[in-house]
Amino acid sequence: MALIEGKTGQWEMVIGLEVHAQVTSESKLFSGASATFGGEPNANVSMVDAAMPGMLPVLNRRSVEQAVKTGLGLNAKINLTSVFERKNYFYADLPSGYQISQHLHPIVGEGTVVLDMADGTTREVGIERLHLEQDAGKSLHDQHPSKTYIDLNRSGITLMEIVSKPDLRTAEEVGVYLAKLRSIMRYLGTCDGNMEEGSMRCDVNLSVRKPGDPLGTRTETKNVNSIRFVKLAIEHEVHRQIAVIEEGGRIVQETRLFDSVKGTTRAMRSKEEAHDYRYFPDPDLLPLVLDQAWVDEVRQALPELPDAKKRRFVEKLGLSPYDAGVLVNDKETAAFYEAVIAGDKRDAKLVANWVTGDFFGALNRSGVALSEAPVDADKLGGLLDLVSDGTISGRIAKDVFEEMWENGKTAADIVEAKGLRQISDTGALEAMVDKVIAENPGQVEQIKAGNEKLLGWFVGQIMKATQGKANPGMVNQLLRKKLS
Amino acid sequence: MSVDRTTVAKIAKLARIRVPEENLDGLAGELNNILGWIEQLSELDTDGVEPMTSVVAMIPPQREDTVTDGGRPEDVVRNAPESVGGYFVVPKVIE
Predict the structure, then answer these.
(1) pLDDT single digits (tens) A208-258
(2) Tell me, what's the pLDDT at A455?
(3) Separation of alpha carbons A70 and A326, rounded Å
(4) pLDDT of residue B93
(5) Listed residue (A22, A267, A270) closest to A156, CA to CA
(6) How far apart are CA A331 and CA A221, in angstroms?
(7) Residue A170: which H helix or E strand, with range?
């Protein structure tokens, strides 16, 4: 348990997250307008989204399926009956005066997410619920000194609100939780998880307590839009709360805003009726009823998710949990890795070392996306084949890889053109070994006197003479035979 | 349950309806009549009765996920008291 040192002793923080994830779909939750990001102001708006009188919402089948998929991916209970309700509040970018949401009867109930922590341990975080709701429009406050500009393109886009239980205890866990949610949704294709474009937004509920005490009063920090900002907001808010309590004050339950420039949180001006949303079932929408057989079909069609993939990589391929975790985190990386091992064609561990080592290194250095890497899965596989069949040594392979990255050629071409083939011809190697032995009688004496370390020096001499092309295993063997 | 004039004023404010001071008592009386009538319903024993959400037993219709609407921003803002460059323009609402 991570505790924070205060003036009056140690404190524990308790965090629950509400994540708003934009559902991947062509059209909106209740209208046929495009759900694409961007676009000219009010171009992706139907009269339903603009809340013109008499317009009626019709539910998007895909939005429902995406929510159910995500629920199944969170190991959660799917509620066969859920109810859309109106959450009433006035704001300029909410033309109807209510958001259609699910309050008492969400489409998805309790579930679990497993966190893989950096130290190799795992933590389980409970999911309280997932419900479907509409996004609001966008207000631009900086276009005019006394006016606000409203664009409704985002209005009515499908959101999933994923509410965690207050199971998180550190900023690090929160970061891992968000990354895991994003990974699961990307595997499922239900949300692109792009926090910069706002497809994943996060509200942080945080309170502090002395270990073992009941829960303290929480604050809710709204709209934090990157994992780094979430961590900053938490660090700031936890120290603010501890300071308030230790100076004899009390925490007020309130909504706060994160200021990404200053890295601080501040209280929103509280209106007394701010939380009186007067929910009631939307009379325009009948309860959503799902068929268990359909839910089972969706479950059957789910792709392999990160946890299952990791387990398979560890149990079937013999990877370390750490390497497996690194490889499955991102759907594209995992697909790349599996394309290189090509079933059981190539050595799973060798490939894992190369992908997480030299390949990731080159990718990070050059800053290109995996899909645009000059060395694709086929080419990397070709290089590793040359290592496995002894054509080149692992040492030479690293140089060949660098060159492949530079010019996009295949490993075989480079090895051929530069004559990098490993010398595995016993006769040729033996001649070289004999020559080195003959030229260095002093060192030979020392080895025979018991200085085994010098064997490495001899190997080095031969590698130098062959520009690294000698088969190091065979050289070692020959030297041992002749010097013992 | 009964409402007084303070509650009426609060509900009116939440609904953004301007109610003159002198109408508050009258409205409180009307709302109390309605609430009293509704309360009679709770005298019925509805244990084990499924809530009826519609008079017609039907599955709500669903749409295919295709873009069939939008692309007419000028119509969207046509009735707006003020608009600039396709945006609705309202008095500044930032806190």
Answers:
(1) 999 989 999 999 998 888 889 999 999 999 999 999 999 999 998 888 989
(2) 80
(3) 22
(4) 79
(5) A22
(6) 30
(7) none
Contacting residues of B for A33, CB less than 8 Å apart: 67, 69-70
In the prediction, which pLDDT does B95 show?
55
Collect all residues of chain A within an 8 Å Cβ-Cβ radius of residue B59: 286, 289
Is the whole-model pTM more than 0.95?
A: no
Q: Which residues of chain A have pLDDT under 50?
A: 272-273
How many alpha carbons fall within 13 Å on the CB side of residue A454? 16
Please tell me the predicted confidence (pLDDT) of residue B73: 95
CB–CB of A436/A462 below 8 Å?
A: yes
Considering only alpha carbons, which residue of chain B is nearest residue A65? B65
| B-interface mutation test, from A286, A288, A289, A291, most B Cβ less than 10 A away | A286
Which stretch of DSSP H or E encloses residue A139?
A: strand A138-140
Task: Tell me the sheet residues that pair with A204.
Answer: A17, A221
pLDDT at A241: 95
Residue A356 carries which DSSP code? Answer: I
Q: What are the pLDDT digits (tens) for A193-207?
A: 988 888 999 999 999
What pLDDT, on a 0 to 100 scale, did the predictor assign at position A275? 66
Shortest Cα–Cα distance, B64 to chain A (Å)? 6
Q: Measured between alpha carbons, how far is A31 from A48 in angstroms, rounded to an integer?
A: 6
ipTM for the complex?
0.89
Report whether A84 contacts A281 (CB < 8 A): yes
Beta carbons within 8 Å of A168's beta carbon, 6+ residues apart? A14, A15, A16, A17, A125, A174, A177
Q: Which residues are paired to A151 by β-bridges?
A: A138
User: What are the angstrom distances between the C-alpha of B31 and each of A273, B3, B17?
Assistant: 20, 7, 15
Q: What is the pLDDT of residue A473?
A: 80
Task: Count Cβ atoms within 10 A of the Cβ of residue A177 and give its class: 0-12 exposed, 13-18 middle, 19 or more buried.
Answer: buried
- Sequence-distant (6+) residues with CB within 8 A of A11 are A3, A4, A5, A208, A209, A210, A238, A242
B47 to chain A, closest Cα gap in Å: 19
Crossing angle for the helix pair A441-448 and A454-465, to the nearest 10 degrees: 150
Closest CA to A29 of A46, A8, A14, A41: A46
Between CA B27 and CA B29 the distance in angstroms is 5
Strand partners, A219: A206
Chain A interface, best mutation among B67, B75, B95, by max A CB count within 10 A: B67
Kindly list the residues from chain A whose CB atom is less than 8 angstroms away from the CB atom of residue B62: 58-61, 64
CB-nearest to A45 from B73, B82, B92 is B73
- Amino acid identity, position B12: A
- List of chain B residues with pLDDT < 70: 1, 94-95
Domains of chain A: 4-296 (no CATH), 306-418 (no CATH), 426-483 (1.10.10.410)
Judge contact between A194 and A21, C-beta under 8 A.
no
